[in-house]
TrEMBL record, chain A:
Keyword Transcription regulation appears in the UniProt entry: no
Protein's name according to its UniProt entry: ABC transporter ATP-binding protein
GO biological process: peptide transport; transmembrane transport
Localization terms from the record: Cell inner membrane
Recorded topology in the membrane: Peripheral membrane protein
Main location: membrane
GO terms for cellular component: plasma membrane
Family membership: Belongs to the ABC transporter superfamily.
Family annotation (InterPro entries): AAA+_ATPase, ABC_Ni/Peptide_Import, ABC_transporter-like_ATP-bd, ABC_transporter-like_CS, Oligopep_ABC_C, P-loop_NTPase
Protein origin, superkingdom: Bacteria
Length: 564, 345
């Protein structure tokens, strides 16, 4: 299975180079990239943000956004009848390349909502391809579109054809995209991060669908992703990219089990590292449930004005020094729950008992005035989006100093020293203190967010998807930093995430949320190795396993909520 | 490994939602119309004294006398001896039930008779102006956006800002002067004198067309310039959206793609501008009509306001406001038809 088919490739890309001229110089987004795609085989192009993987994929269709342009290389497309054409030589606005787009090479994109028009019916958007390439009549088109919708397993295709995209869920939208791509039976499907915006269970469904269609039609698939787990599950061959260059290329098994290149090794290493418990946590004594809990939440309930019970009878507890993971898919209410704990939202029911440093217990849900202010000094938050959560008009020093100033804990020279110490603590050079957030990378920005959160010496930090926006190589670094700070400062964390691997890496206990409820709580090892609730089992089995020798998704289980 | 049967994610009955939306919108218009009628009535009541005391003073000054019976009957007729809300109710119910807008104090004729013919021309002029604005602003806006920062774009932008800055009446005066002095055209009015009172015929229609283009141009050019800018900005926002890339990846030609997706999306905010373009056209028409002596409601309203002919003025204000409310409803309904997302809000 690792040897490419002996037949000639469907598409052969040689020395592709794409440049983006900027005001001052020229950025080589894709530099000397070569690969081949074979019938019925999947090539995964993997890389972190800015690696040029997406630009390479778009170059194949000549749809790179301006000012990007292909400056070199060839892309030979071989048709089933044996004729071939060099796509790189075609005029990007010309007829010849248009005849290839959608007909011989089709593409699906990351954001199915914004990649589909919200004001055209899905049936019309799918049928358009048939009209452009085959000049198919309306009635015939409708019939074929219904057939396509059935093929991608959209329920009720006769009705669905006249619906709009916003009437579908994310997974269904991606199915519509796939139906659109398949309309003309292309010989090559390019999928640009098609499951990144989806939940893991939905991702598993979409990957299974693409695989089934590939087997049925024999098309080649070029799959762009940053997720090594997905790569291991679906790839035949892998191309690793970094800053526009190919780092390594080879069969999937070799990439994962005998990587040749340092960057590949680092990438695989950081993924594999996240598959088990963190090293600094392995030897630590398990945190026992102390009798004097730090946080004791009981029967918390929040109903939105729309009637949606976002948080439904939730009880959880956090001991001093403990990390509690809260895992769930989008819409499970995990973020809303976290915000209730900080009184960003006011929960209508339940108690949130928080034990203050002096031993007194405050119900955060009903606290007012000075009580609430002091509790908010002891509970801090780290956000998902390191760009949006930092004020772009303030220097890093101002951002980190702000909570100290608000709490009147320090001023003048002492404040400066505290800020410098905090920056050092999170691994930032204090010499950068006068810079603005835009001058920092994503990982550094998240460190600024952490420094701000620990500035007032809190005792509980709620981290909402704190590592989700980061590349995988930075993720474990950030988690290691958070654990180091935990040991130094005796912090407790509530770690909210959709990503089971980061939960497993650092959390002592985990609570699994589904539709506003906690369906299972327990020690992380117990929950991940022997899940009790059917939903947890389904969730775990849908997570891609970054080992091509032990593909997990093929025999995953599905969760069907019992009649409710 | 087929997926298990999935729950239906569909929100049902989009078409029912559209009907519901229209009904709701019409229902919302009722309080607006009531508020508008109250404002119009307040305007009628603003000057000291009432219509009859002004009338009697007028007649007395001319040496005539008014019979007590007539005055009493008129007072009874308009309810002038009753509290203000009863007067309002009489005024409104007469309009709604009998189409009776009262009597023009200055012309001594029923208001309905005075304004009916002129209202038709006002309406026609407004519709023609709107058609002119839309038919031209959309293509010009598209070109300006697609060729962003080109000579065309810069010229259009300059022209648009220039026209936005020029007052209507000035443009009317200058264009009339230029046309009559250098081109010998008959300007002013909507007809040449010989056709003014003639019955409709092809020749009269042609004469109308020869006259109407200038007021349409003068009234519309300001709004045209604003719309070009709006269309350009909307389209620039849409041109680089992911769905455009999707359509391109289907193999669609650039022109078809442009018109079918980004332009179609950019039109939606443009439709909602109908709500403020209509009042802008109507109020612009008042000034321009006075300058160009058009037989529309504009000069009539101005004269009514100057001579304190309050039933006439109030009726005109009421009618113009009602037309604006109706225009807004139409633009909302068009928007709901054009954008399915609006229907489900």
């Amino acid at each position: 299975m690792n040897n490419p088919a002996p037949s000639s490739p469907v598409l052969s890309v040689r020395n592709l180079a794409v440049e983006f001229p900027t005001r001052t110089n020229v950025v080589k987004a894709v530099d000397d990239v070569s690969f081949e795609l074979y019938r019925g085989k999947t090539l995964c192009v993997v890389g972190e943000s800015g690696s040029g993987k997406s630009v390479s994929a778009r170059s194949v269709l000549q749809i790179v956004d301006r000012p990007g342009r292909i400056v070199g290389g060839e892309m030979m497309l071989t048709r089933p009848d044996g004729s071939s054409v060099d796509i790189a030589k075609l005029d990007p606005r010309g007829k010849a390349v248009r005849a290839i787009r959608g007909r011989e090479i089709a593409m699906i994109f990351q954001e199915p909502m914004s990649s589909l028009s919200p004001i055209h019916k899905v049936g019309d958007q799918i049928g358009e391809t048939l009209r452009i390439h085959f000049g198919m009549k309306k009635a015939e088109r409708r019939e074929r579109v219904i057939e396509l919708l059935r093929q991608v397993e959209i329920p009720n295709p006769e009705k669905a054809i006249d619906r709009y995209t916003f009437e579908f869920s994310g997974g269904m939208r991606q199915r519509v995209m796939i139906a659109m791509a398949l309309a003309c039976n292309p010989s090559l499907l390019i999928a640009d991060e098609p499951t990144t915006a989806l939940d893991v269970t939905t991702q598993a469904e979409i990957l299974a669908l693409i695989k089934r269609l590939q087997v049925e039609t024999g098309m080649a698939v070029l799959f762009i992703t940053h997720d090594m787990g997905v790569v291991a599950e679906i790839a035949d061959e892998v191309l690793v990219m970094y800053r526009g260059k190919v780092m390594e290329r080879g069969p999937v098994d070799q990439i994962f089990h005998a990587p040749q290149n340092d960057y590949t090794r680092m990438l695989i290493g950081s993924v594999v590292k996240l598959e088990k418990k963190a090293e600094i946590r392995v030897d630590r004594e398990p945190v026992e449930m102390a009798p004097d809990l730090l946080l004791d939440v009981r029967n918390l309930g929040l109903t939105f004005p729309s009637g949606l019970k976002a948080v439904n009878d939730i009880s959880l507890a956090v001991s001093p020094g403990e990390t509690l993971g809260v895992v769930g898919e989008s819409g499970s209410g995990k973020t809303t729950m976290g915000r209730c704990l900080l009184r960003v939202y006011d929960a209508q029911e339940g108690v949130i008992n928080f034990r203050r440093a002096d031993g007194s217990v405050v119900d955060v849900r009903t606290a007012q005035g000075e009580d609430l202010r002091s509790v908010r000094r002891e509970i801090r938050m780290i956000f998902q989006d390191p760009v949006g959560s930092l004020n772009p008009r303030k220097t890093v020093a101002d951002i980190i100093a702000e909570p100290l100033k608000l709490a009147r804990l320090a001023k003048g020279k002492e404040l400066d020293e505290r800020v410098a110490a905090l920056m050092e603590q999170v691994g930032l050079d204090p010499a950068w203190r006068e810079r603005y957030p835009h001058a920092f990378s994503g990982g550094q920005r998240q460190r600024i967010g952490i420094a701000r959160a620990i500035a007032v010496k809190p005792r509980l930090i709620i981290a909402d998807e704190a590592t989700s926006a980061l590349d995988v190589s930075l993720r474990s670094q950030m988690l290691d930093l958070m654990m180091k700070l935990q040991d130094e400062m005796g912090l407790s964390y509530i770690f909210i995430s959709h990503d089971m691997s980061v939960i497993r890496y650092m959390c002592d206990r985990v609570a699994v949320m589904y539709r506003g409820r906690i369906v299972e709580t327990g020690k992380t090892e117990d929950v991940t190795s022997a899940p009790q609730h059917a939903y947890t089992q389904a969730l775990l089995s849908a997570i891609p396993n970054p080992d091509p020798r032990a593909r997990r998704m093929q025999d995953r289980v599905r969760y069907q909520e019992s009649a409710s | 490994m087929r997926a298990a049967p999935l729950p239906s994610y569909f929100i049902p009955k989009l078409e029912t939602a559209l009907i519901g939306f229209i009904l709701k919108r019409l229902l919302y218009a009722i309080p607006t119309l009531i508020a508008v009628s109250i404002v119009a009535f307040i305007i009628i009541q603003l000057p000291p004294g009432d219509y009859l005391s002004t009338l009697m003073a007028d007649l007395a000054s001319q040496g005539g006398a008014v019979e007590e019976g007539t005055v009493a009957a008129l007072r009874e007729r308009f309810g002038l001896d009753q509290p203000i809300y009863v007067q309002y109710w009489k005024w409104v119910s007469n309009i709604v039930m009998y189409g009776d807008f009262g009597i023009s104090f200055e012309l001594n004729r029923p208001v309905t008779e005075v304004i009916w013919g002129r209202l038709g021309f006002s309406f026609l002029l407004a519709i023609l102006t709107l058609c002119f604005i839309w038919a031209l602003a959309i293509p010009v806006g598209i070109i300006s956006a697609v060729r962003q920062y080109s000579i065309t774009d810069y010229s259009v932008t300059f022209f648009a800002f220039f026209m936005l800055a020029v007052p209507d009446f000035l443009l009317a005066l200058v264009s009339m002067y230029v046309l009559s002095t250098y081109f010998g055209q008959s300007v002013g009015g909507l007809f040449s004198p010989e056709f003014a009172d003639a019955p409709w015929s092809l020749a009269r229609l042609w004469d109308f067309a020869k006259h109407v283009w200038l007021p349409v141009f003068v009234i519309g050019i300001g709004s045209f310039a604003a719309l070009v800018r709006i269309m350009r900005a909307n389209l620039l926002d849409e041109l680089h959206r992911p769905y455009v890339t999707t359509a391109r990846a289907k193999g669609m030609s650039e022109l078809e793609l442009l018109l079918r997706y980004p332009v179609r999306m950019a039109l939606n905010p443009l439709i909602s501008t109908l709500g403020w373009i209509l009042p802008a056209v109507v109020s612009g028409e008042i000034i321009v009509s006075v300058v160009m002596s058009l037989p529309t409601t504009g000069p009539l309203l101005l004269r009514a306001l100057l001579s304190q002919d309050m039933y006439l003025a109030g009726s005109l204000i009421l009618l113009i406001s009602v037309l604006t409310v109706i225009g807004t409803i139409i633009s909302d309904i068009l928007l709901a038809i054009a954008d399915p997302r609006i229907r489900l809000q």
